[in-house]
């Protein structure tokens, strides 16, 4: 196996790669896209504005938020309707903790990928 790998790897520049998602009940539900959406909701105070910044439809953003809420079992996004400012959205403490944990996990995953890529050379 070592000779085969060495032969393969001398024919180009190779690197280890991968993506990282959380799955629940066999469904991908938390990864780069949903994390970015939640971060933009927190930044803008609006699901609609967050969706626009991602060039995503409002309907798609709501589908992501609803799927997160269903799988996690508690609201990730807290919405307020009406009022002087027309309502808005914010993240629950659970959503903020999940994002923080995921960002940390991504960093560990990035380091793992980097270390494995170095072993190829």
Automatic annotation (TrEMBL):
InterPro entries: Molybdate_resp_trans_reg, WH-like_DNA-bd_sf, WH_DNA-bd_sf. Gene3D superfamilies: Winged helix-like DNA-binding domain superfamily/Winged helix DNA-binding domain (1.10.10.10). PANTHER family: DNA-BINDING TRANSCRIPTIONAL DUAL REGULATOR MODE, TRANSCRIPTIONAL REGULATOR MODE. This is ModE family transcriptional regulator. It comes from Niastella koreensis. The lineage of its organism: Bacteria, Pseudomonadati, Bacteroidota, Chitinophagia, Chitinophagales.
């Amino acid at each position: 196996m070592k000779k085969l790998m060495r032969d393969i790897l001398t024919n180009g520049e190779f690197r280890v790669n991968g993506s990282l998602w959380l799955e629940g009940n066999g469904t991908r539900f938390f990864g780069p896209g949903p994390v970015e959406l939640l971060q933009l909701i927190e930044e803008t105070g609006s699901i609609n504005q967050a969706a626009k910044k991602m060039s995503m439809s409002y309907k798609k953003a709501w589908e992501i938020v609803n799927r997160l809420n269903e799988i996690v079992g508690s609201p990730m996004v807290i919405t307020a309707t009406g009022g002087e400012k027309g309502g808005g959205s914010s993240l629950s403490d659970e959503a903020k903790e999940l994002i923080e944990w995921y960002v940390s996990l991504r960093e560990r995953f990035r380091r793992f990928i980097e270390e494995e890529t170095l072993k190829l050379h």
